[in-house]
Amino acid sequence: MTENLVIIGSGPAGLTAAIYAARGNLMPLVLTGQEIGGQIALTNEVENFPGFPDGITGPELVQLMQKQAEKFGARIEIDVVESVNLKMHPFQLKTQNGLEYETRSLIVATGASPRRLNVPGERELTGRGVSYCATCDGFFFRNKEIAVIGGGDSALQEGLFLTRFASKVNIIHRRDALRAQPILQDRARQDPKINFVWNSVVKEVRGNGKMESLMLENVQTRAVSELPAQGVFVYVGHIPNTGLFKGQLEMNDEGYLQVDAQLHTNIPGVFAAGESHDHIFRQAVVSAGYGCMAEMEAEKWLANLK
Ligand code: NAP
After folding, report:
1. Residue 155 confidence (pLDDT) above 90
2. Among 100, 128, 203, 211, which one is least packed by beta carbons within 10 Å?
3. Residue 150 region by backbone torsions, left for phi larger than 0, else alpha for psi between -120 and 50, else beta
4. Is residue 133 annotated as part of the catalytic site, yes or no?
5. Which of 38-52, 57-71, 221-235, 258-272 has the lowest mean pLDDT?
6. Burial class (CB in 10 A: 0-12, 13-18, 19+), 267
7. Using CA atoms, how far apart are residues 181 and 92, in angstroms rounded to an integer?
8. What is the pLDDT of residues 244-275, one digit of tens each?
9. Domains 2-113+238-305 and 130-234 share a fold
């Protein structure tokens, strides 16, 4: 069977595309990736998604989007696409579960993943103190001193969340000015459990079997110091999940897909939505909007194909 539309990825972009495509009777197939929901599913509190004045947790928001898509007939499969062939039409896809699909149109909504620090000890101590998800792992650090790396919205928002558990949260930032929104900055500066360590980068994560400390370097003085911490949460930005499409879809040096204003990639019938191409806004609501746009273009494209 040839699918009308396959959507790769199940964050706000992918699930919004699925809602629109299902309502358009395309019977879309969503291949979710490792888990459903993407990055928003790892976010504890979503306060700025319109329609939820009291906030909503990321996993709840994903569940609602999934329910809405399935209600109209979207099929959502937990599976990871391992290879794509976009050089022939219909496009060919192979997945980790050993399935093969062919589809007339494709929306790439693969999003982005947390960037690693790439310092000694980080990989070895991941899951033993090093984490990229406060919602998942915060609970393990009850009454412990921990660190958060980064100065953006994620670092501050998740740092604030971690004060529910940790006795002290050291936010380590490579500059002396934060990138995060003022509202988060104000909250963090007023929180007695939060301590800022400015102009500092992590050189090493130390520990024997479990994390014990961070080696920090002051970027101005070059002084190196050791900060005791039983956990570290890394929020230093993202890299787009577009490796699968190298050599087939045009992308910039950082791996973000190149699209036109209507979200068409260089291959007719292949569209991108969300953080696989958007390196500027990276908001759940923006990704949802891109999901809608990509689907409307895919629908038009399919109609012309017939
Ligand atoms: P981000 O805005 O890209 O911030 C990354 C932070 O990490 C920056 O402070 C950056 O420092 C620092 N950094 C980058 N590479 C580093 C390295 N190698 N070592 C040390 N520090 C490093 O990423 P984000 O905070 O994850 O946010 C991503 C997007 O999601 C943004 O658009 C943000 O607005 C959005 N977001 C929104 C909310 C919300 O609305 N509540 C919540 C979370 C995320 P510099 O500042 O010096 O570059």
Report:
1. yes
2. 100
3. left
4. yes
5. 38-52
6. middle
7. 42
8. 999 999 999 999 999 999 999 999 999 999 99
9. yes
- Taking CA atoms, 144 is separated from 166, 230, 266, in Å, by 5, 7, 50
Q: Is 292 a catalytic residue?
A: no
Span 110-120, average pLDDT: 96
What is residue 306's predicted lDDT score, i.e. its pLDDT? 75
Query: Where does 2-113+238-305 sit in CATH, by number?
Result: 3.50.50.60
| Residue 253 appears among annotated catalytic residues | no
Looking at 79, 137, 153, 278, which residue is catalytic? 137
Which residue has the least CA distance to atom 38 on ligand 1? 153
Q: What is the CATH number of domain 130-234?
A: 3.50.50.60
Sequence spans of domains, the chain: 2-113+238-305, 130-234
> Which residues does a 6 A CB cutoff place in the pocket of ligand 1?
48, 149-155, 157, 174-175, 179, 201, 235-237, 282-283
Determine the residue of 148, 220, 236 to mutate for testing ligand 1's pocket, defined as the one with the most ligand atoms within 8 A of the Cβ atom.
236
The pLDDT > 70 percentage for the chain reads: 100
| Number of the ligand 1 atom closest to the C-alpha atom of 175 | 47
Q: Calculate the dihedral angle through the C-alpha atoms of 200, 280, 86, 102, rounding to the nearest 10 degrees.
A: 100
Residue 104 pLDDT: 98
Confidence of residue 188 (pLDDT cuts 50, 70, 90): very high
